[in-house]
Each structure stands twice: as structure tokens, then as C-alpha cells.
Amino acid sequence: MCLVRFALANIRRRPERFVLSVLGIALAIGCVTVVRTISASFAITGADSVSDVLGEAQLWAVPAAGVKYDADAQALFANGPAPAFAAPDGWTVTRTLSGVIEINGQSVALRGNDETPSGQAVVGAPLAERLGLKTGDHVTVGGRDLTVDVSGSGQSLTVSSSLAQTIVGSDGWWLIYAPPGEEKRRDLGHTFGNAVGLESTSDPSVTPDPDGHGLIYDTVGGSGPLTFEQKFSALFSGKVTGSTLGLISIIGLGLGFVIAVSSFLAAVAERKREFGIMSSIGLADEVLYFFLVESAIVFIAAYVVGVFGAGVAVALVIPGIATPTAWLQASAMVAAFLPAMAIVGALVPVHRLLQQRPVELLGDR
Prior knowledge:
Order of helices and strands: HHEEEEEEHEEEHEHEEHHHHHHH
Largest sheet: 10 strands, mixed
Radius of gyration: 29 Å
Number of helices: 12
Helix content: 40-55%
């Protein structure tokens, strides 16, 4: 507590340096937090979108043109017709037609299957909230008036196959269910793929061959502890962190660290005589502890300002992408850097200080 009071007294003595240091580091932390918030939001969105597609299916057969994510519709849609094959005995396959339409001026992912009754539109709860719909309301899809049934947690609107085909054509995919008792087998994709003549993979980063007949994603098999949904979300997140925006955030964090070190080096230069006196009476260790405490105060203040500033920025600029959960995840990740940055930020100037003898620190030069 004595060191804390000593550090706070020094901050009050030079408030302008403290404010400038905090703002410089906070700007870097805020930059990283914004990028990581967007990245975490895309990761959450990726996991939710693929879960909305798969349901309980073990295999997912996509067209040769693959599938795409529509940011406005916040869902996946097929980029071509579902591959043609004859399912082996014991396997259950369900075709889902897929496309993007516009309802009330908003992009919506349209799905079509044989299980949805004619005259009904099954709307996921998040989509219903976005469109302002509730169970029993009516919505016009493809020129037909349908009764809304709010069900599920996805961003898709599901209608009968006949209606969907008149709107999106034959674009879609297959959901494949393993025979009873074999749902957890790790070779389902390989077994089914060999039977129907399609390639299979458990890696969502692998895309279909445009000149091929389609691809089967195995959501159960594959090595490693991650599920298919987690791999898919990591793929979404990596597109943000690996982009130019991610590189800029890393550079910004490095600049923030340079600002911190420069500030502490300037503080050392100004207070050489003071620390020379402390070292001459055997308090050299206290000099190190003092800088560690002051460094921690600066970084904690910068972290609080940076993450809250980033939260306000994403809430105002990109409210449709960033979520509070993603912001909390990003804030926790950025907090992991602080101890190392604070310690190194204090050690660099103190190391230079302690390399000199007390008599040199007490000199005029």
C-alpha cells in the first residue's frame, strides 16, 4: 500500500503525463478490442449458422458451387443445386432448398423442405424478432400469404418445398442421417461418400471442387477435440484476425506498448537523483517495485478506458454484428496481455536505471 500511495502521489504530481500515457495505450487496447469483438461475433455467428443448418444430421452434402454466408441475412445459403445421388439402404436423407429473399426490406435466408405444411412459414426466433413477427402473424413469401410459426433459434424462414422451388429453384443441400445405432461412428463421411461417389471431409475450410459433383461434410468424424461447429466458427473468426484489420490491431497494440515504455523512460530520466538517493541507502529493490506498481496502475486505467471505449464504438457503429458476449470475450482476451506488458514496461526503464551506480545517478549529468 505504501508503494501504491507513492505511485499515486507521483501521478498527481505529473497528471498530464499519466493522462497522455493512458490515452495512448487505451487507444491501442481499444483498437484490438474492436477487432477481437468483431472476430468473436463472427465466430458466434458461424457456429449458430451451421447449427441452424445441421440440426441433428451427421453429414451435410453441399453443391459443387459450395455454400456462402450472407451477412445481411445472417445465415448460410446454397450457391447451386444439391448433388444428385442414390442413398444406400438404412440412411435417411432430407433435401433442403436454400436461397436469399427480401421481406419487409430485409434480407432473409429462405429454406424449403417437405416437412413444412403448405400455407405455413416457420421462422426462427431471432429472425422473428428482427422482422417484428410472432406466431399467428401473416407474411408474404413468393406472392403467397403464409401463417407464421415462430420456432427454433436460427435466422432462417422455412416454407414448403414446392413454394421454395418456385422462388430459389433447385439450389440447396442434403442433410444425411446415419442408420440407427451408428450416429457416433467416426467414419460416416468416408462410408457414405464411397457409397454415393462423393468426396468427404471433416474440415470446413475445404471447399468443393467447382468441376466436381459436390462435397460431404462429416460433422462427427475428424481428429482433435473440436466439433464441426467449433471448427466452422474458428474459420469465420480467422477471416477477421487474419485480415488487414487484424494486422492493424496488432500494430496498434505494439505502438501502445512503445508509448508506455517511452513514458516510463522519460520518468526515469526526470527522477534520476530521487532514485539515486533511494539506491544509495539500499532501496534499489523498492525502485523496481515502485515502477511495477505505477506501470500496473497505468495499464489498468488504460484497459478500462480502452475496452469501454471499444464497447461504445462497436455499439454505435456496428450494432448488428457485435454482441455483448463477443465484447466480453474480446475484453477477456485483451486482459491476458496486460500483466506481461505492465511488467516488461517497468523492467525496461528500471534495467537501464539500475545499470548505473548511485553516485552516477546523483550527478548533474
